[in-house]
Structures
1.
Amino acid sequence: MKFTVKWLKQPLDTKTSVDEIVTRLTAIGHEVEEVINRADMYKTFTIAHVKDVVQHPDADRLKVCTVDTGSEELQIVCGAPNAKKGIKVVLARAGDYIPGIDVTLKKTEIRGVESNGMMCSENELCLSDMSDGIIELPEDAPVGGSYMEYAGLDDVLIDVAITPNRGDAASVYGIARDLAASGLGTLNPVPTDPIKGTFKSDVAIEVQSDSGCPHFVGRMIKGVKNGPSPEWLQQLLIAIGLRPISALVDITNFFTHDLGRPLHVYDAKKIGSKLIARKGKAGEILHALNDKEYKIDETMCVIADENKVLGLGGIMGGIESGCSSETTDIVLESAWFDPNIIACTGRTLEIISDARYRFERGVDPAFTKPAIELATKMIVDLCGGEVSDVVEAGTPVIQKNEIKYDPQMMHDYVGMDVSAKDQKSYLEKLGCVITGDKIWTITTPSWRPDLVIKHDIAEEIARLEGLDKIKPAYLPPLDENNPYKPHDILTPLQKAALHAKKALASYGFQETVNYSFISEKEAGLFANKNDALILTNAISAHMNVMRPSVLPSLLQVVSKNCARGFNAGSLFEFGPVFHGTAPNNQPYQLSAIHYGALKPRHWRGSDVSRNSDMTDLKGDAIAVLEDIGFPTSNLRVLEIEDSRAFHPGQSGALALGKDIVARFGAVHPDILDAFDIKARVSAFEIEWPAVCNILGRKNNNNARPPLKLFDLQSVTRDFAFLMNEETEIGDLSKAILNADKKLITDVRVFDIYQGKGMEEGKKSVAVEVTLQPIDKSLTDEDLKKVTTDITSAALKSVGAVIRG
């Protein structure tokens, strides 16, 4: 929200300085983003007269101009199409800074001809976006005079950030009202005397019940002259970055920014006999004032006549019914539109306009009719014309909340001591009506729908008193008598997530943070189409589905990295996935991915720079689970059933009991093709809810078990088992560990053989078993017994026999 101090002081009667205004705005909750003293920007520019223009001898599009500055004549090379003899221009000399192009001028030669300055366009001076020609000043502009003083550019521009709930502050008058309520000056009332019409409007108005436009007010004005707006109005608009177009358009822009009330003007000769606010129809097209075409649908509110769409209600008008210099008869529109429909339409069509910005935040519904009277007066004053009676359809949707409020709440809730008298003064200056004695009944004004509960009232008073006046409160000493003892902010499961991320980072993985939105095509690679959560209001066509897995987000990053020449890396993300609309259908998932070679190419050979495979990611997944205190010793490795993400022959799942806690493996080639990834990619997914449930059953003791050191040296024994080829090796390892849980500490597979000399349907598995004596060294009898226990457990559990 931009405005100048001079503009602000029209509705606000105050003599305070710019610094005081800026400080107060910040204190009452309006964040000042920028303060620009335009005098500093424009003080070096002067007015000059072009005495002569000749063609550049070595460039068809350049001209050599002789410019009278009032004290000397300068030669300037100019490429503007409107550079001609006799005009008055804005001159910048060598050494002047041009803000629009971020250049400090120097004396130079252009195609062999000396140039001693520059004649400026509006775009180059940041006055508008017009860059097709230099500024042509009126004949009475004083040569040699200051352009800043002549154009009234010696004002201060303030840019304020408006929060989404404060639609009332999206206007100069709204800002002035807040400042006045805080005690910085007096607010001047807005006179809204009705203007009596002299004839009945030729254009009727109709509002359909489901249109999203419950109240529409219109008026016809005949015989207007739509020329340039007066200099004062043009300068107001230029100061905030708007380009003056014509008197009628400039007037509507003025009311949008001055009073926060968007209006629209139709050329009466270009429309039918009725203006209709209705829902759009599929297939309708609007050629809008921004010279773009938009496809209308049934969710949008449009303004139409009997034959065609004229505009998007509350967002933008159409070019076919727009006003021009030939316009003589107009229809003035002042309507109120549903903020939700405005916001949805604007996002769908990706239109950003000043009208949309205000309507979706909330425009005062009670000001619809007074606004048309004010606009009518200005149009008649500046453009002339004969005024019709006001035509009205629908009724205003005015929201005035009644709130019970105890003035003592300021101390109890906010911690500020503000007298009841001052509280009442603040609220009444905001437009509230207060009744009652000890407990007040506060009726909020129509322009403040955000004031709903008593806490809103207390916060408003605190804001106007000054948020900078809230005194700091110190916590009591942290001792045994303090009821507010320090405690952990994070829950045990949040700590587990943090530890897991730190663990992956320590393994060389880099964390990514991605959007939870993906395309419908990408989602279909990981879940059934019928299960996809499709957004009705997607921010883009490529982000219209909530992701069913974190992997597509990681694969997007891999695809972009590979396209930029980063062909190897390790990434992870901890974030939500979406399987339904219920809260328990939106769990968190920890996923990691590796693509390309594990290490760069090396002279020692390919074994050093090999690609990662499923066992690497399986090991990383188990290591992460161990780091957060998960009981990995009891994990089983299973085949993945019905997984679209992983290669069916190079993947697996980690399970504890019936709970699948993780999946790992090589990413399916079809998915890599869909993401245009040529590198080999392996990944794992840890299902965080399953992990959390198991950790919770461990009484939230998520720490890793303490390190146990033994005085006696461990012993290793190798075994070679013959077993059925379909038997899981993990089941064999588990059986061996269970043979003697106290003595056997580790089982590692170091060889698997199938082939010549091996019975068909069988495989040989060689394992190394680590035995850790605790209180005495192992004797031959002890080793013989544990060997018997191991072979018996292997035979009994998985049918494995010692290979002999």
Note: The mean pLDDT is 90.
2.
Amino acid sequence: MLTDLLTKVSCVFCWIVILFFVPSIPGKGQDTLVLPVAVKDTVPIHKSTLLPGIDSLLKADTARKQPKKSALKSKVDYLCTDSLRLDIRQKKVFLYKDAEIKYEDINLKADYVEIDFQKNEVFSHGLPDSTGKIVGVPEFTQGDQKFKSKIIRYNYNTKKGFIQSVFTKQDQDSYLHAEIVKKMENDVSYMKNGSFTSCDLEENPHYAFHFGKAKVIPGKRVITGPAYMVIAQVPTPLMIPFGYFPSKAKRQSGILIPTYGESANKGFFLQGGGYYWAMSKYTDLALVGDIYSRGSWAVKPTLRYNYRYHYNGTFNFSYAKNILGVPGSPDYDKSKDFRVFWIHNQDPKARPRSNFSANVNISSTKFNKNNLSGSTQAYLSNQFNSSINYSTNWNSKYYLNLNLNHSQNTLTKTINFTLPQIAFSVNQFYPFRRQKSSGKLKWYENISMKYNLDAENRYATYDSLLFAPGWQKKLQNGVRHVVPISATITVLKYVQWTNSINLSDKMYLRSFRKRYVLAADTAGAPYILKTDTIPGFVNAFNASATSSISTKLYGMYQFKRGPIMAIRHMMTPSVGITYVPNFGDPAFGYWQYIQNDTNHVNPQKYSIFPEGMYDNPPSRKSGIVSFSLRNNLEMKVRNRKDTITGTRKIMLIEDLVIGTAYDLARDSLNWSNIGIRGNTTLFKNLRLTYSSSWDLYARDAKGNRINKTEWQVNHRLLRMDNSTWNVTLNYTLSSETVKSKKNKDKTAPPAKQDLLEDYDDYVDFDIPWSFTINYNFSYGTRAPVTGKVYSVTHTVGFNGQLNITPKWKISLNSGYDFIAKELSYTRIDITRDLHCWEMRFGWTPKGYQQSWDFSINVKASLLQDLKLNKKKDFRNAF
């Protein structure tokens, strides 16, 4: 206590002496003046505030000896946390421990700094700590330049410097090391005995290009003389006559180096070679292609654009000619493949009331198979969907959506386009509600209305017939207006009574007519059916009325003892009736009859409207009474971990729905199938989904439903319907979900960006492990003339990833088909994080995609061509 008090008193006394007497000290007086700073107080010393006498002293002495104007153009601020020493005779300031110098855009930090006001120089280096290790080495910053060094001498007038053992970051991915650096006034630096690398280790980087001399132009380039590559401090024979490393923060145009190799089916190849064009600060274009010695080739231009705070996107068009095998061999195949890929995103803040987006993925049947080797997602995908959408609204009441849609299945080779789809809607409104309501609403004030308009133009075809001659005749188009009117009122406090009327009108530009014509070949059927397309506007009106009631029923059973406290069952029964008039009446003209000229006994009924566009008006009247029962079952148990309530709820059944319907207008087979569907979480992260359909009626030997119940024929209540009975289990668990239980406030990791081709290249080492298993069992039956046939699917799929060590990660994607008794598509990937490098090994042991691939490469995009690849894919011979 006494020592601390004496120290503080001495400090205060020193400051009083300095503040009052230093300005009057002559230049030939005391040579040095030491200003101690107590370690515990850590008071920073500013030239411009705490030492006003030093400025006047230095200026007065300089005026006597050097009449010329000082080179200092701005104020020099300096501070430290240990001590500051003034050498008045030599006009120097010495700062110790956490010293910092600020002059214009220059900032210097170090444990020892020496300022020479006479020479306008700064000299700095680190100091040894208690163990003898040099700490507090200089950190120099000027504008965008920043580097560390052991010793630095810098003239802030000429802006020239001499630096020893420098380490600096050039841009996001590159670093420079040098023994000696001479910094010139134009910010150009000359280096001796240095190295260039993308490894961020200050000492002993994992790899580097060593050079004797180099010239560094900040923000532009690094030019070196002869250089050789060093890996793990071991020189290699990999040498270059000179080095040219761009160091611009912005993109630069240049040549893209291709990868080379050999394919048994395509020959020698060069892949991914081309030219990168930085068109502007918003747009760039990569023109790349592949070429094979046996005639195959591909072009894959990719355009990217990014207008910050407005929109961004990527457009890729790929065209390939694939020649597999040798002409005349059984495996010879020749095809032309293409793909169009476009993603466009608009910033929500750019135009809050409207949005334009695009997600287009159109490809030929064999493109993924022949051109995207080694990609699990590409190989397993057979369904491709595209959409281009524009949406806007007016005062959040009127909404307009314009869509262009595409769907494609590479297995069935079907393609469907909707070009365009227009949707206009008006929000729900209450036409009879008072603007200034008071008191209880009248029943008619609960009547609400909406308006929806849909207009579509559809085109369905096969990929081999896409835009073939006459494709315009296959277009389907129409407009649909829908006006739903509904009202819900509460009856007896607990019953909800809903009444609704649904009005719709479909408009078409053509209709169909069918007729029998005499066949030209009399050896066959004498008459054939012909369908005529009648151009002209025609519309179809439809209406239906529905009335339904629903309520909620609760049941609870409480336990007096044991861990279970109570079980609660919530049921939501609903009963409704829907009436549809008979629009099949000849007076409407929506349905026509055609009579077979051979017997004139069984006329055929058909709709005059295009098939598959919108639902046709019903051909008969119906009065359907529907029944449904929704169930929810939960259990309350005791929980000692919950110190507030002491209980915990467990959901036994989240949603179990049982429903059927009865048609009053039918003369037989009035009951529809009984549908059962449900889902629940059995345990944490284990999800169960169930669905099935059951029939009350029996079937005859031909599989047709008869007007006899299953009980009357087979003495059983229900029979499984022809549709599928399905059970699905999904279980997902990862280290992130385990952590979230302990830390619920942890933010989710950023989402992975969409990739064009390299779906498997993204590895998240932040997730130590994860595991997902999917179990699917489906059972379907049908009873044709030949007897009962069963359709069974029984599969399990699983995928997971595990960090064996913080730097080793293994991933597995596989499954098993219990019916076929074989493994499904299987792939194993092993990844090693080598700090500034990365290594990958992938293996597909069986199937058409049987392959393996190995690669080791530098992570930095600047040196992306510094890699080694070796692979044998499904196109190569093993």
Note: Confidence is low (pLDDT under 50) at residues 1-33, 35-68, 741-762.
